[in-house]
Design brief:
mainly alpha, 6% strand
């Protein structure tokens, strides 16, 4: 339960404080969302936001303004790790799905190849050449035996 004054709730929703009074007057915010009465009334932000999401139609949202925040802000993503950056680079360069590129980047790191964002392509080529050479050596050894 997050209790806010009308002006604070308005700031939280990025609207003018009179808009909150209009929402109350029009029944978009009501009942358990309003704690107290008159000028000292507080708004339970969690309940009020849920009510607004349910009760405001598209026209109401447009009238309110396109900058109105009725949903929580998305969580900020952490900066990508070097391996994630390599995966994205590999995905772009090779046309792989990102998950496949992540697995490939992880395999390169585990194998000990110097994988950085700058050298992702070179590390991949080196790794593929090494695997190809190992395959050829194994085929030649099998023929010789």
């Amino acid at each position: 339960m997050t209790l806010l004054r009308k002006i604070d709730f308005a700031a939280h929703c990025n609207v003018h404080r009179s808009r909150v009074s209009h929402w109350i007057r029009d029944g978009h915010i009501s009942g358990p969302a309003i704690v107290g009465s008159g000028r000292k009334a507080m708004i339970d932000a969690d309940i009020a936001l849920r009510q607004l999401r349910e009760r405001l139609d598209v026209d109401g949202l447009v009238r309110t303004g396109l900058n109105t925040r009725l949903y929580p802000a998305p969580a900020k993503r952490a900066a990508p790790t070097a391996r994630q950056a390599v995966a994205v680079t590999l995905a772009d360069e090779l046309g792989l799905y990102e998950n496949a590129a992540r697995r490939l980047a992880r395999a390169l790191v585990i194998a000990g190849w110097p994988v950085t964002e700058q050298g992702a392509w070179n590390a991949l080529i080196e790794g593929l050449n090494t695997l190809d050479n190992q395959r050829e050596d194994a085929e030649e050894a099998a023929k010789a035996a």
